[in-house]
Write a structure and sequence with these properties.
Order of helices and strands: EHHHEHHHEE
Largest sheet: 2 strands, parallel
Pfam family, one: Mob1_phocein
InterPro entries: MOB_kinase_act_fam, MOB_kinase_act_sf
Distance between the termini: 15 Å
CATH architecture: Up-down Bundle
Keywords: Metal-binding, Zinc
Helix content: 40-55%
Strand order of the largest sheet: 1-2
Protein name: MOB kinase activator 1A
Radius of gyration: 17 Å
Number of helices: 6
Structural class: mainly alpha
């Protein structure tokens, strides 16, 4: 099946000696901004260990700002997680961007690359993370200043970013989980992924085979823990 297409961050929960290496530069949220305060709120809630509570919109806050803050943080989380396994994700080991034998992804961004192209996983992820970085840096899409409104298409753009970021999780789980375990990073990966799943469920990112593995089972915690099925 083929599919076309801050430093300050509470990613500290997934930090390890290896995860200090990032694939792309981290995206910073300006200190003193309202989004920074939202991030600190999320950090405090997430620090309690309640991931479901951590993804809920704080009372009285703007949904777009909340989504923007979390989208930046998930970019930083995935940036660190993928950074830990880049030596294993190469042109030779991953000649196509895939998540198991049934799901292959071709890259297109609609601007620089309009026609979907088949490429290696590292190339695809480089395209993807660069594209996400460009969206996050665009003040017309992700305004950081108080009083600047979010554009009408913000929700659509944010959901597209999250759908595409999911593919990096999927690739890591299907192609590199053995390496993740060897590096003893599986707890960081599982916690980050569980956090991500809870968040996209709350904001109702559309489901569909084009970005969701069907099924993707991730066991987190004890045998009695619910198994996350994202399909």
């Amino acid at each position: 099946m083929v599919f076309h297409d801050i430093d300050v961050s509470y990613s500290f929960l997934y930090y390890s000696s290896r995860s200090s290496k990032t694939f792309k530069p981290k995206k910073n949220i300006p200190e003193g901004s309202h989004q920074y305060e939202l991030l600190k709120h999320a950090e405090a809630t997430l620090g309690s260990g309640n991931l479901r509570q951590a993804v809920m919109l704080p009372e009285g806050e703007d949904l777009n700002e909340w989504i923007a803050v979390n989208t930046v943080d998930f970019f930083n989380q995935i940036n660190m997680l993928y950074g830990t396994i880049t030596e294993f994700c190469t042109e030779a080991s991953c000649p196509v961007m895939s998540a198991g034998p049934r799901y292959e992804y071709h890259w297109a961004d609609g601007t620089n690359i309009k026609k979907p192209i088949k490429c290696s996983a590292p190339k695809y992820i480089d395209y993807l993370m660069t594209w996400v970085q460009d969206q996050l840096d665009d003040e017309t899409l992700f305004p950081s200043k108080i009083g600047v409104p979010f554009p009408k298409n913000f929700m659509s753009v944010a959901k597209t970013i999250l759908k595409r970021l999911f593919r990096v999780y999927a690739h890591i789980y299907h192609q590199h989980f053995d390496s993740v375990m060897q590096l003893q990073e599986e707890a960081h990966l599982n916690t980050s992924f569980k956090h991500f799943i809870f968040f996209v469920q709350v904001i109702k990112v559309p489901r569909g085979g084009h970005y969701l593995l069907s099924p993707l089972y991730i066991k987190i915690g004890s045998k009695n823990d619910p198994i996350l099925k994202y399909s």
